[in-house]
Design brief:
Distance between the termini: 48 Å
Mean pLDDT: 90
Number of strands: 20
Length: 513
């Protein structure tokens, strides 16, 4: 009872901190006015930067001026600017000092470094605060317990640029403000120091023990739902040894509960789980739903290292555009026209964002579906997929969407599946059994370009690897071994990376040694 009272007091302080921004977000508003106010102030603040002078920010008065004077951009357009920032140059993209460069990447792409300023942190908080405040206000009993926000294990030493600018956050919780972090550090079920575990095995063990010792865990927030599935499997597989490290009250029936697969019994106080559930995560989240029967699963809004795009609200499906965070534009997939948030109609769009971190009209690569529009409220939207995720060795142009549909037709979409190139063929790595090579290849040959490459002999028949135990865990391990952060690894069924066969063989050898 004392620990619950303690949690209620601290969570109550956070809710009070967030109440004004939650109220603002939910209040009726003029979406265009909110967005134009943000844009006008941002351009004025950064008009004297190198980028601002190049594109004459001081002459921009309207959105039409903005769209005419500033080009659409991608990361490659910023590489030279960011290299100079890393070497110590100031006033390049923003007048604010760059606090750090945050690494990001897709599961099959190279590393990018995103400039992070105080303004960008505030813009993230404009989305985080109403989201968490809404949970505190509407999810029964979540205020009485502690929270688990997934921690990213450290796989390399802290890095700095030549000018001494840090690369990467010390803690993922750095998105929160100082006061909030001070409070939340006392509410986190898993201490941030766990990221320094000397191996992934130690990381899973220490995380599991911390969560199982937590007297009242009410909220779980992870990115990839597969991460939570792996953690639950670890607890189930190691139930007996973990039980020896638990206090007496938690030991009762623990092994039986952990092995039952009913994790709502293992963590009976959990009221909400926040994780990706759209796009390529739609199949992965089904396992979490089975593991935590009856627990409210809230799909995360659209959040990337570069920007905070949308937030979910309790009682609504999908998520709402975070209109107080950044300036947003949308390129229609139907006619290629670009519109602002107030001009949206139902349909599919590519997201374009301008932020206080120094990205202007940045094509982030997210494809979203607009579900609902309103003159007085942020539009409701859903993440669909990443633009351009494909593998194209010989012109076969395989896309993630196509591969996902193939897996559904083969009846294995709820299993971990990863299709990747191996020499001059594709190989499917999965924990599913019974997929014949010809069956996989014929399904892939429904793609015109893949079939053409097969006919030309550029590609050989696809193969299905021998069923791989713990395939999802090994997928995460390889990518983290190669320097990716867990929070950057999105669920994917298609990878451009080759060499999976050699990697899995080495891991088997280690396990059998």
């Amino acid at each position: 009872m004392e620990s619950k009272l303690y949690c209620r007091v601290l969570n109550g302080l956070c809710r009070r901190l967030y109440s004004s921004e939650l109220k603002r977000f939910k209040a009726a508003c003029d979406v265009r006015a909110v967005q134009m106010k943000y844009l006008t102030e941002l351009l004025k603040k950064n008009s004297a930067t190198e980028y601002g002078r190049k594109y004459s920010f001081e002459n921009i008065r309207t959105y039409s001026d903005f769209a005419a004077q500033i080009p659409l951009t991608k990361y490659e357009d910023y590489e030279n600017y960011i290299e100079r920032i890393a070497d110590g140059a100031e006033g390049v993209l923003t007048m604010e000092k760059v606090r750090l460069l945050e690494p990001t990447s897709g599961s099959s792409g190279g590393r990018k470094l995103i400039p992070y300023t105080d303004s960008l942190q505030h813009e993230f908080q404009c989305g985080l605060r109403p989201w968490i405040g809404d949970i505190y206000s509407n999810v029964e009993q979540v205020m009485s317990g502690m929270s688990y926000w997934s921690v990213t294990p450290v796989t390399s030493r802290k890095q700095f640029t030549k000018a001494g600018i840090p690369i990467g956050f010390e803690e993922d919780s750095a998105y929160f403000g100082r006061l909030e972090r001070h409070i939340m550090d006392r509410l986190f079920a898993v201490d941030g120091s766990i990221k320094f575990a000397d191996s992934m095995e130690s990381f899973w063990h220490d995380t599991a023990v911390s969560l199982l010792r937590c007297p009242c865990l009410t909220l779980i927030s992870v990115w990839n739902p597969t991460y939570l599935s792996i953690l639950c499997r670890y607890i189930s597989d190691n139930a007996e040894s973990l039980a020896a490290e638990l206090p007496a009250l938690r030991k009762k029936d623990f092994v039986e509960k952990a092995r039952s697969g009913s994790f709502e019994l293992v963590f009976p106080d959990v009221r909400i789980i926040s994780c990706w559930a759209d796009g390529s995560a739609a199949d992965s989240v089904k396992e979490v739903e089975k593991l935590f029967s009856g627990v409210y699963i809230q799909p995360k809004g659209i959040i990337a290292t570069e920007c905070f795009t949308s937030l979910p609200l309790v009682g609504e499906s999908d998520s709402r555009l975070s209109i107080y965070s950044h300036f947003f534009e949308f390129r229609s997939l139907s006619d290629n026209s670009i519109v602002t948030a107030d001009k949206l109609e139902k349909g599919e769009y590519e997201l374009i964002v301008t932020t206080g971190g120094g990205l202007y009209r940045y094509c982030i690569g997210d494809i979203v579906e607009i579900i609902e529009t309103s003159d007085i409220a942020p539009p409701r939207m859903r993440f669909l997929r990443r633009a351009g995720i494909s593998c194209d060795l010989f012109g076969e142009k395989l896309t993630e969407d196509f591969v996902r549909n193939v897996l559904r037709k083969l009846g294995v979409s709820e299993h971990f599946c990863l299709l990747a190139p191996e020499g001059n063929r594709y190989c499917l790595y999965t924990d599913a059994r019974g997929i014949r090579n010809e069956q996989l290849d014929n399904a892939l040959r429904e793609s015109f370009h893949y079939n053409y490459c097969r006919q030309l002999g550029q590609l050989e028949c696809a193969e299905t690897a021998e069923a791989v135990p713990d395939a999802d865990r090994l997928y995460l391990k390889r990518l983290t071994d190669e320097g990716m952060k867990l929070g950057d690894i999105k669920p994917s069924c298609l990878s451009r990376l080759s060499g999976w066969s050699d990697y899995l063989a080495k891991e088997r050898k280690k396990r059998n040694a």
